[in-house]
């Protein structure tokens, strides 16, 4: 290449510079205000190993993403230097290491900012010269170790991308005549490095294996009374203005560090400086090693902690003075926290007196509350042994005049250093002596503008000189207690309001629930009433023609018998009938007719009797005319209900039949509300049939016994068992059980709740068992319980008295609540 590569074509005046840049072996680059390459000479392109098209317009950082690791580190370092120059607007010199096929190559690179008329950086110009042939001196190695130990970044000459920042270590060698210029540059770098060390706030020195000084920074030299840091080289601690004790101690520390190869850190010691000023230092001594790891000396860093030491001494001197203030602050915070965390007034007051007594180291602390006529009572106290208690003590009227109360209301604080020598009334002194009080401190407690009570501290052992801080502490706490008392009162009022609101809400909820229940019950009762009316009307309409048929069947049977006897008589009188009569006898098959007509008449009698029984069952179930207590046969009501449900018990094409077994006991006539009791039987039997149908649908029984006449097979199928009996001669019991799948315990506990049902929507209202429970328990003073477990069937147990205690007094309200 014959020129530098730019984004824009250079003008003619710059051609000579471009030719120089193209011919020189030095690295020359230009960067724009964004840190992107504007121009790069051939030497830089060759060293970076990138094409011109890749460099121009790109920043070193963006290029580092697509190059090998070694080159990436160099480009990232270049980006860092360019950015620093743009930010600081100052000249910067660094040493970069580039990895090449021939090995690592070092370049001393200078970065120069180009400013416009406004002082803004518009370009950065870099010029680099190779310094690979220089070698690092032992001084560089030692100082590199020292700087690393005290936190200064040092270059690793074996690592790519290494930089030696502004003021880098001097690189020395035996210079030839042709390299003196480069040596001068390195010397300037050494001067900059020394400048960095001299500006470090710590004191730095390093020694050889024999504790001979090899160097230091200017701050350490001035402390030792040496003007030039280079003058320390070759000296020992014996040559410096330390005390004999200090010299001995320094040498002992040096020996321990270098022999044990273990650093001594944070050593606090006094230091007599050259100006005879005694200071305090925190010293670190660290071993230095050569390339083989052998200890060749030590590095020392010193930090001046004189101000810190003085502060610690002052803190110790003032500790006693401020301990009491700290305790006061702690007590204030603790009580404030207690007030925030608890709204229980008794707890807050008790905590306050305990903490006050302990903090003030007094014999007794108490809180006194006023009531009417400025009488009062000690609410809480904390008292040390052996002093007596003041709880419940009441101040007499004559010892506490209203004028004194007015002064307390205005915020007066009573400070008695010695009760005996005070100006109190005799009765007051007598009262205080009763409780062994020799010194007294009283602070009023206000809630808003009302004088609520007093916070009192007693000293019983001896008189006491109360301090201003103690008085201020008590006043502060009295104010906090006033806030706490006000909050507790508001909280109590809020609790009372909340409880009242809760009670009203519960009452309203109960009323709403009762209203919903009553409404649903009325709807259900209306349905049952409508059903009863329908059944009664139907029974009445059927009963009339059935009675007509039933009443004439006997006559028809008698007439038919008479006619048949007449025919038989004719056959006896005229054994030889005419041909026409013989033909008619054959046509009507007189012998069969004579035999079958009797069977037909018997079937008519059985059918009409069955119809009459069904009609009677319907009438018994409806009981429209029985809205008061009646004496009835319980079994009759059960059988009537079974007759009505008979169609659900018969087998169908989809399921087997359900057997009903009866184990009736010998029951007397029972006083009850028949229609309501029948409603209970209907609900329980209907639920039993539902449960058995569900079990059949789920395959609980095998179909082998379907329609079987075998009694054992029938028992194994779905069955409802009804048992009745007497209990203690005063109650009747009815048990209705099924052998279905049973009810889980979690559901069994809810079955009597209104609106609770496990049936699908539209198939159950959840009111049947709830109403049944009310009818048995409330209406009949009985019991209705359910016993069940999953897989073991279900049993409902009913108990009602044989005689109802209120059978003669059925109020209109009851009749309205349970309409039939």
Structure write-up:
Residues 258-317 form the PAC domain. It comes from Almyronema epifaneia S1. Keywords: ATP-binding, Kinase, Nucleotide-binding, Phosphoprotein, Transferase, Two-component regulatory system. Residues 344-480 form the Phytochrome chromophore attachment site domain. Residues 537-804 form the Histidine kinase domain. Helix 16 packs across helix 17. The chain has four domains: 5-179, Beta-Lactamase (2-Layer Sandwich); 200-304, Beta-Lactamase, CATH 3.30.450.20; 360-466, Beta-Lactamase, CATH 3.30.450.40; 629-817, 2-Layer Sandwich (Heat Shock Protein 90). The chain is built from 23 helices and 24 strands. By secondary structure, the protein is of the alpha+beta class. Strand 23 (783-788) and strand 24 (794-801) form a beta hairpin. Helices cover 47% and strands 20% of the residues. Mean pLDDT is 78; it is low at 7-13, 135-175, 704-710 and 808-820. The chain is elongated, with a radius of gyration of 58 Å. The strands form five sheets. Strands 1-3-2-6-5-4-7 form a seven-stranded antiparallel β-sheet. Strands 9-8-12-11-10 form a five-stranded antiparallel β-sheet, sandwiched between helices. The longest helix is centred in the middle third of the chain and has 106 residues, at 468-573.
């Amino acid at each position: 290449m014959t020129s530098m590569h730019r984004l824009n074509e250079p003008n003619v005046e710059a051609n000579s510079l471009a030719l120089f840049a193209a011919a020189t072996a030095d690295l020359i680059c230009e960067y724009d205000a964004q840190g992107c390459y504007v121009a790069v000479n051939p030497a830089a392109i060759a060293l970076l190993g990138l094409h011109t098209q890749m460099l121009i317009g790109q920043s070193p950082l963006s290029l580092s993403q697509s190059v090998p690791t070694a080159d990436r580190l160099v480009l990232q370092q270049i980006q860092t230097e360019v950015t620093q120059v743009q930010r600081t607007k100052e000249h910067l010199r660094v040493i970069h290491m580039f990895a090449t096929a021939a090995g690592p190559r070092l370049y001393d690179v200078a970065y120069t900012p180009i400013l416009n008329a406004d002082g803004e950086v518009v370009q950065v110009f870099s010029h680099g010269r190779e310094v690979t042939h220089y070698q690092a001196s032992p001084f560089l190695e030692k100082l590199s170790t020292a700087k690393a130990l005290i936190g200064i970044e040092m270059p690793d000459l074996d690592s790519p991308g290494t930089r030696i920042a502004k003021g880098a270590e001097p690189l020395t060698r035996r210079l030839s005549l042709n390299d003196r210029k480069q040596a001068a540059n390195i010397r300037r770098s050494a001067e900059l490095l020394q400048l960095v060390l001299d500006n470090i706030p710590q004191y730095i020195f390093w020694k050889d294996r024999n504790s001979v000084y090899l160097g230091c920074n200017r701050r350490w030299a001035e402390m030792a009374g040496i003007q030039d840091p280079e003058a320390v080289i070759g000296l020992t601690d014996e040559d410096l203005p330390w005390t004999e004790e200090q010299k001995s101690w320094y040498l002992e520390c040096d020996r321990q560090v270098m022999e044990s190869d273990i650093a001594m850190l944070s050593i606090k010691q006094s230091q007599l400086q050259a100006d005879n000023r005694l200071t305090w230092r925190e010293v670190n001594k660290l071993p230095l090693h050569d390339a083989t790891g052998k200890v060749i000396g030590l590095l020392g860093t010193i930090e001046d902690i004189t101000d810190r030491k003085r502060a610690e001494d002052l803190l110790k001197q003032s500790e006693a003075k401020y301990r009491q203030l700290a305790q006061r602050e702690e007590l204030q915070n603790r009580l404030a926290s207690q007030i925030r965390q608890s709204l229980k007034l008794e707890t807050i007051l008790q905590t306050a007196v305990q903490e006050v007594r302990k903090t003030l180291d007094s014999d007794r602390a108490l809180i006194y509350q006023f009531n009417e006529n400025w009488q009062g009572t000690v609410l809480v106290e904390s008292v040390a042994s052996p002093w007596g208690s003041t709880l419940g003590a009441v101040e007499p009227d004559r010892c506490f005049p209203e004028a004194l109360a007015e002064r307390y209301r205005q915020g007066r604080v009573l400070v008695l250093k010695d009760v005996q020598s005070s100006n109190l009334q005799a009765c007051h002194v007598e009262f205080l002596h009763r409780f062994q009080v020799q010194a007294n401190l009283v602070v009023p407690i206000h809630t808003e503008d009302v004088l609520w009570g007093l916070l009192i501290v007693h000293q019983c052992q001896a008189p006491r000189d109360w301090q201003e801080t103690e008085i201020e502490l008590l006043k502060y706490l009295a104010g906090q207690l006033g806030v706490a008392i006000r909050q507790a009162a508001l909280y109590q009022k809020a609790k009372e309001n909340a409880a009242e609101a809760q009670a009203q809400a519960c009452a309203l909820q109960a009323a709403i629930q009762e209203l919903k229940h009553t409404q649903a019950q009325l709807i259900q009762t209306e349905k049952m009433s409508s059903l009863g009316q329908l059944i009664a009307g139907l029974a009445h309409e059927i009963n009339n023609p059935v009675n007509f048929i039933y009443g004439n069947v006997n006559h028809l049977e008698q007439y038919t018998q008479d006619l048949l006897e007449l025919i038989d008589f004719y056959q006896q009188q005229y054994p030889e009938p005419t041909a026409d009569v013989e033909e008619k006898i054959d046509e009507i098959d007189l012998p069969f007719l004579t035999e079958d007509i009797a069977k037909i008449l018997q079937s008519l009698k059985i059918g009409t009797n069955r119809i009459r029984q069904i009609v009677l069952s319907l009438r018994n179930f409806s009981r429209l005319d029985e809205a008061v207590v009646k004496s009835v046969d319980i079994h009759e009501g059960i059988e009537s209900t079974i007759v009505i449900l008979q169609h659900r018990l018969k087998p169908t094409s989809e399921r087997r039949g359900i057997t009903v077994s009866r184990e009736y006991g010998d029951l007397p006539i029972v006083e009850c509300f028949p229609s309501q009791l029948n409603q209970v039987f209907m609900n329980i039997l209907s639920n039993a049939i539902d449960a058995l149908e569900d079990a059949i649908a789920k395959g609980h029984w095998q179909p082998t016994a379907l329609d079987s006449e075998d009694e054992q097979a029938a028992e194994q199928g779905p069955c409802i068992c009804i048992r009745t009996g007497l209990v203690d001669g005063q109650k009747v019991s009815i048990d209705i059980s099924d052998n279905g799948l049973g009810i889980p315990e979690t559901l069994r506990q809810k079955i009597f709740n209104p609106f609770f049902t496990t049936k699908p929507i539209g198939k159950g209202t959840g009111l049947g068992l709830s109403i049944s429970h009310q009818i048995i328990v409330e209406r009949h003073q009985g019991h209705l319980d359910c016993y069940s477990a999953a897989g073991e069937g279900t049993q409902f147990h009913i108990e009602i008295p044989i005689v109802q205690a209120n059978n003669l007094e059925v109020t209109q309200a009851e009749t309205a609540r349970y309409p039939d």
